[in-house]
Write a structure and sequence with these properties.
- This is HMG box domain-containing protein.
- It comes from Pyronema omphalodes (strain CBS 100304) (Pyronema confluens).
- Keywords: Coiled coil, DNA-binding, Nucleus.
- GO terms for molecular function: DNA binding.
- By secondary structure, the protein is mostly helical.
- It has 4 domains: about 70 residues; about 80 residues; about 100 residues, DNA Binding (I), subunit A, CATH 1.10.30; about 55 residues, no CATH class.
- Helix content is about 80%, strand content about 0%.
- The radius of gyration is 70 Å and the shape is elongated.
- The two termini are about 130 Å apart.
- The relative contact order is 0.05.
């Protein structure tokens, strides 16, 4: 329907534009005919002819002007729709762009908020970790201090229990030369106390001792014997001044001090208490070996070890019973001695 209206409109405009041209052509033809006949051109007819086409032209133009204004309703709706559709599309696009912009802004704000939240959380965790590390360090410091305090207390305790004021027990008897050297070297060392100077002094005294008379040597020998007896009595008196349990604790403390390099030398050598049995009771195999050595005094150790071991393995339980009973009796006697001294009996 709209196509048909467009065709009609175009035809009307063509007709209006063609009519004046036709009139002009007719007028020119009339004038040429009159000129050829020698007659003037009819003005009235020309005027009428000119007026009529002009009126027709005016009428046609008015009709042409009026006709386009009376468009069909469908075409008007379509034109309106064509104008409206782009406007709606632009509006929709604008709305969509606005919505997208708003969503992007919201997303940006949310991301920013999440970032700030994450940073705050990380900072909080960092502070927490730092506090935890400080707490751990503090705990380690306190732990180290406690360990150190316990070590100091333990050291103090062992130093007290070690009985370090005990006289030194001599493993061998003093000689005349020992007494002479102790007497002479008291003030003979140089002021710097170097090892080289001490060696020279020692060699000098040794050579001097060799030049002593027999009476002088005997004099120093008597002094050595007397000194040895005095030291032995002092040592025994010191041991008997303490209980066997205290002596046992002192030996344990001395071993600890020596192991931890706190003390060394003769000051921490084990105390010897003659009141306590020196050896543990022999087991049944040891009782058997002792008996066989008594029966065969000339037996060599290597031969005895092989032959007696084979003999022990070949014996029956009934034959071993006498040695088992003897070992049990020895153990009971040993434990009774320990208990009488206030010491703990052995279980093995």
């Amino acid at each position: 329907m709209s196509s048909l209206a467009r065709i009609i409109t175009r035809a009307s405009s063509v007709r209006v534009s063609v009519t004046p041209v036709t009139l002009q052509l007719r007028t020119a033809a009339t004038k040429a005919t009159a000129a050829a006949a020698g007659k003037p051109a009819p003005k009235a007819a020309a005027k009428t002819a000119a007026t009529k086409p002009a009126a027709a032209q005016s009428k046609t133009t008015t009709a042409a002007k009026k006709k386009p204004t009376t468009k069909p309703k469908a075409e008007a709706v379509e034109a309106k729709a064509k104008k409206t559709v782009p406007t709606k599309k632009v509006a929709v696009k604008a709305e969509k762009a606005k919505k997208q912009s708003s969503e992007a802004e919201l997303a940006k704000k949310a991301a920013r908020k999440e970032l700030l939240k994450t940073r705050a959380k990380e900072a909080k965790e960092k502070v927490k970790a730092k506090a935890k590390a400080a707490s751990l360090r503090q705990r380690e410091i306190l732990k180290a201090q406690k360990i150190k305090a316990r070590a100091i207390e333990k050291k103090k305790n062992y130093l007290e229990k070690a009985l370090l004021d005990a006289p030194v027990k001599r493993t061998r008897k003093l000689s005349a030369f020992n007494v002479y050297l102790a007497e002479k070297m008291g003030g003979s060392l140089s002021s710097d106390g170097s090892a080289e100077q001490a060696q020279k002094v020692f060699i000098g005294h040794a050579n001097a001792f060799k030049g002593l008379s027999e009476s002088d040597v005997q004099k120093y020998a008597d002094i050595a014997t007397k000194k040895h007896i005095e030291d032995s009595r002092a040592y025994k008196a010191f041991i008997e001044k303490h209980t066997p349990a205290e002596i046992k604790e002192a030996n344990a403390a001395r071993r600890w001090l020596l192991k931890n390099k706190i003390k060394k030398g003769a000051s921490v050598q084990p105390l010897v208490d003659d009141r306590v049995p020196s050896a543990r009771p022999a087991n049944m195999y040891a009782v058997f070996i002792q008996e066989q050595y008594k029966l065969n005094p000339g037996m060599k150790f290597q031969d005895a070890h092989t032959s007696l071991h084979d003999k022990w393995k070949s014996m029956t339980d009934a034959e071993k019973k006498i040695y088992r009973d003897q070992a049990s009796a020895n153990k009971l006697e040993y434990n009774a001695q320990l208990e009488s001294l206030g010491l703990k009996a052995t279980s093995a």
